[in-house]
Design a protein that fits this description.
By secondary structure, the protein is of the alpha+beta class. It folds into two domains: 1-31; 33-80, no CATH class. Helices cover 26% and strands 29% of the residues. The chain contains one helix and three strands, in the order αβββ. A three-stranded antiparallel sheet has the order 1-2-3, with no helix packed on it. The radius of gyration is 18 Å and the shape is flat.
């Protein structure tokens, strides 16, 4: 947000609005996962970067990752 000259509260509000719109969309248009003879794996992970031995970045950062993998294909198709 600093690179664009936009304040953090503004970015947070825009992010919240986009999440709300996406949620409304997927509440009305259901996504079909899996099916006959189809195996789907869903994973949600939290990655946290911490400093080690007081070297590196000072602040902890949290990044959420969401992944869907269709393992009926070789190699598996992965959607991030």
């Amino acid at each position: 947000s600093l690179e664009l000259g936009v304040l953090h509260p503004t970015v947070t509000k825009i992010h919240s609005e986009i999440r709300s719109l996406v949620r409304i969309y997927y509440d009305n248009v259901p996504m079909i996962l899996g099916g006959p003879n189809r195996i789907v794996e869903i994973n949600e992970s939290l990655f946290i970067h911490k400093t080690k031995y007081n070297v590196g970045r000072f602040a902890e950062t949290q990044v959420w990752g969401f992944c869907i993998a269709d393992t009926t294909f070789t190699p598996a198709k992965v959607y991030l």
